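Cross-check.
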Amino acid sequence: MEKKFDPALILIIPLLGIIGGGYLSLPITSISKGREPWTSLALVAGLALAIALVGGLLMGSSHSSILIAAAIGILVYTVMASVGGFRQHIEPFFAAHMLAFMALLILTPMQNKEAEQGGDGDAEEAV
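Predicted model, tokenized:
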């Protein structure tokens, strides 16, 4: 059974991004007491896990969409945190979290459309 894109996710994903600056960043920073590299490693691992869960379970995204979105988030966080200093975690993480989920929101319908156009005929012929 193929999962279809749910339009309600257009509202849920930005809301998750807005909350996302706090639901991972604040607990991780308090647990690690802001020590590097543990804070940054835990933040990017949490971001990748959140993208994998939302992309895989809620949106039915492909693995490549999930990996690309996670890579975008991790890259943005790493660049922003290294330029702005690793002592400030919330602002770079919020931007990285929001961009990663927006990338997932954009990539999933694009890949679903490509699969509908070209992938279905080839799969039926092979069976």
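The mean pLDDT is 80. The radius of gyration is 17 Å. Passed to J.P. for a second look.
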